[in-house]
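fwd from M.: "can u put these together and see what the complex looks like"

so here's what she sent:
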Amino acid sequence: MLKDLIDPEYMEALLAATQSAEGPEPAPSYGNRDPLAGLQLDDVQPREGPYHHRLLSYLRQETLPTTFCVGCGGGTVLNCFAQAVDEMAIDPRTIVCVTGIGCSSWIPSPYFKCDTLHTTHGRAIAFATGVKIMKPEMKVIIIAGDGDLAGIGGNHLIHAARRNLDMTVFLVNNFIYGMTGGQVSATTPIGTRTTTTPYANLEHAFKIADVVAAAGASYVARWTTYHVFQLMESMQTAIDKKGFSFVEIISQCPVSYGKMTGMSDPVDILSFIRDSSVALEDAQGVDEEELEGKFVVGKLVERKRSEFGEGLRRLNAERRAKLTEELGRGLRQDTSAMETGR
Amino acid sequence: MNRLPELTENSVREHYLGTLAGREHFIQGDEAAALGAILAGCDFFGGYPITPASEIAEVMARELPNVGGYYVQFEDELASISAVIGAAWAGARSMTATSGPGFSLMQENIGYACMTETPCVIVDVQRSGPSTGQATLPAQGDVMQARWGTHGDHEIIALAPSSAQECADLMIRCFDLAEEFRSPVIFLMDGEIGHLRERVVLPTPDSIECTPRRKGAPDSLVFGGEAVPPMVEFGDGGFVHVTGSTHKEDGMRDVQTQEVHDRLVRRLVSKIADARDRLAMVDIDSQDGASVGVLAYGATARPAQGAVLRARAEGHRVSFCRPVTIWPFPIRQIQRACDGLKRLLVPEMNLGHLSREIERHVSCEVVPISKIGGVIHSSSEIRAEIEEAVAKC
């Protein structure tokens, strides 16, 4: 069954490679860098033993196993994120992961070993804004769910995209409030049964990546937990991109979403995600009605806009230069200007 | 004026602050509070416009770029307080300023700041409520919201200024207390003081001893082990885990163990409650043999003090008391101020907030003199109440 989930094109290429005359191609290697290089030797986990995985050193191992349900997409996202960070050779000590409330917020908090700020419901991006302004040299990455970022925190999401502060948002969209047991969310497709729409959801869903693109983000993409390699690549582009970057990750919640939609088997729901995905190129010119219920995957937007943090620092440099000049000329003894607000 | 020597980033800041400080200004309480914050080393302000606190944001927007700090206007008060907390963990001395409606919106994250022990300052320039109420008019209706606005057990520090000068001086104190106790501090101004324009002399930078943030080694316990643990900020390499969920001393969530929650919350409460006497700032002006006293804070302390002085000039013996520290409630000091009194008059611009707290702690009769509707008590009104109380004794 799992075999069905593998991209047939990839399968074909893989088979061709393994059957070629030169023998099997070496498996792709995702960086063998020690993320903790520079720390004391004792801090580095031994790299052998039956349970060792090379990405384990990116996790707070004392918190494992994760609390994710069997078949949850959260583990896939965590895996892709750790791979992405590893390939990019980013020191985890320079990453701050900011999260909200909900299952998806637990992906980095506590599991990913970096500075983690686990905030109140919906406010992750707002907290992250304060962090990034004070620590421009750090990578500020927000991972949270659709309920958190598109629902209760939707206002912060669009304003952060408008402000274009350099940060990265991974919105894990599983169409449901999973942690609270499967209530309808702002991204639940119309007509869907959930515990709070026991007959049918009468509301339209947000196409949240499109909303963020319209709000002015520098980079917007949509991928799924099925498209792991594309997702990883997209995560890297997003982390690298200056400005507000956003990746919507369509993910599966077989427990809370699946139970009311007849997709309790993780494979069923992942198959559904695969079959509902349409590549951006293939969606060009297609009727909107035809795309109803489909996920258009790919890079939606990549643009260059002035970044807010740089603006703030430029302003401060300009003010400092002006004050230096004024102080040097012995001005600024009269504070009346201050009182009148100039 | 001598030509200045080499101007480094720091010396520009110092010189610039020098031009503000040590001089007489004729400014509003809001402006004084903002300049006090600048002198206290505030370098992050996140805010949202609201009457009567907007002037604080305006001054911060004007002055923060001059001292290397950052002003950001957010989409709402929820974002403002969130960013203030985030900035604090990234090393900032951070603050926001708002009024009643915005203060209500901030409550959830004030609780988050209590739980995560985040030093920050929240200015609440109180206005007439509930709801939009009389948006441009003053009140003292947030005394209990400051204390109990967020859910769950917690202790909070709140100071109330009675003059524009105190807006500046106490603001500096607020930042120090925030660092000393690793706690949000509420600066409980009111619209009357916020918009009161009077003489203010800002302290010179060298006369201000800012309490620095106590930081620990990257492997320190950030959330326990002592009453006020040291901080490890983001980027220090400590892999800090900050959460509003119940957590152990190392910051890791443990929301199921009764003892963990009990230990954490009792420590959060006691680190402030145990310092009650140290935190108490109370202006006590008692008269021997007085059986009537007046207790007032914030704006109402001004007409109240005037009324007491006039009553005394007419030969009455009247005690006066003005708590500056509102929370934690200065129990012992207020009890001392009420010693020997039969009646304590408490003029407040609400229907009885602090008077209830006082009643719990003193043996004399507590008489609230409530006035709402956006108009402050006149000195004559309070004097009439004093006369009536004296006559009854």
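replying to her w this: Chain A has one domain: 35-307.
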